[in-house]
Design brief:
Length: about 290
């Protein structure tokens, strides 16, 4: 990329949603704005003409000459200048292919300039640099146009399918989902594993967990293997959670309430006052609920 490491790190730190979609240079953006402005003026002039206003009055209202309004009302009028972005043959025109070939061989611009000067070129080194810059831009644009069009699926949409149904995720269609599974077969297998694990957790049959672990261990995915290792380390508790309908949700909820009260009163009370506030909160909740 011909950039220093600091610049590359800055590029990598840019969030994906902040990367500009258009790579148009400043001159191109100014041209696009000018074309849009002129198109609005043309539309306004034609709208006034349809309303019955004479050309002279339209020219006065829009602060344009009569000739300009006539051009705007011409059905064949184009807001884009035909000469824009057109290439005018210059001193470098006979040597363009040779410049591209020499540059591809790694020669510097001064060396290329000396070679061309020996063949009759009278331009400057800066002209060579400008030509190659435009040529690279043109080739990149051509490559982008030749690339097959593909749809972009957001990563969060695929993640939502882990705990939602396909019809409940608005950012992905059934066709896109099918294409994603066709291109990445492993994704389909992972979705199947997740659905099977969900079924096992609510089946109240702990023996099914051993079968699921054996099938999941076949995949060499570090994140999945780490999850399986964590389940195996506490396998008895996990199986009890599957076999029994009760859980520790009530205790966890009470602990969360106590921690919220503790954080609110941090630095402003003793343990005795904290205890009283917790007990009063429970009494208040019991009386009004």
């Amino acid at each position: 990329m011909h950039s220093c490491p600091t610049t590359v790190r800055k590029y990598l730190a840019i969030p994906e949603n902040e990367i500009p979609e258009s790579r148009a240079i400043s001159r191109e953006r100014q041209h696009q704005l000018a074309v849009q402005q002129k198109q609005r003026e043309v539309d306004e002039a034609r709208k006034l003409a349809k309303a019955g206003y004479p050309i002279e009055q339209i020219a006065t209202m829009m602060h344009h000459t009569r000739k300009t309004i006539q051009n705007y009302l011409n059905p064949g009028y184009s807001v884009t200048n035909g000469h824009y972005n057109g290439r005018i043959p210059g001193k470098l025109a006979p040597y363009e292919k040779e410049v591209i070939e020499l540059r591809s061989q790694g020669l510097t611009y001064p060396k290329i300039h000396n070679i061309l000067c020996g063949k009759g070129y009278t331009g400057s080194v800066a002209s060579l640099r400008m030509f190659m810059q435009k040529e690279r831009t043109r080739m990149q644009e051509q490559e982008e146009q030749n690339k097959p069009q593909s749809e972009f699926i957001q990563r969060k949409s695929l993640c939502q399918l882990i705990y939602r149904k396909l019809e409940d995720v608005a950012t992905i269609t059934a066709d896109q989902y099918g294409q994603a599974l066709e291109k990445y077969p492993l994704l389909s297998q992972l979705y199947t594993l997740v659905k099977e694990f969900h079924t096992v957790m609510f089946s109240q049959k702990p023996e099914k967990l051993d079968i699921w672990i054996k099938s999941a261990q076949k995949y060499d995915i570090p994140e999945l293997q780490s999850f399986i290792e964590g389940v195996c380390n506490d396998i008895e508790a996990v199986k009890n959670g599957i076999a029994h309908s009760y859980n520790n949700g009530l205790a966890e909820g009470s602990v969360n309430k106590i921690k919220v009260i503790k954080r609110i009163m941090y630095g402003r009370n003793s343990f005795t006052l904290l205890k009283s506030k917790v007990l009063f909160h429970e009494l208040f909740y019991a009386e009004f609920n």
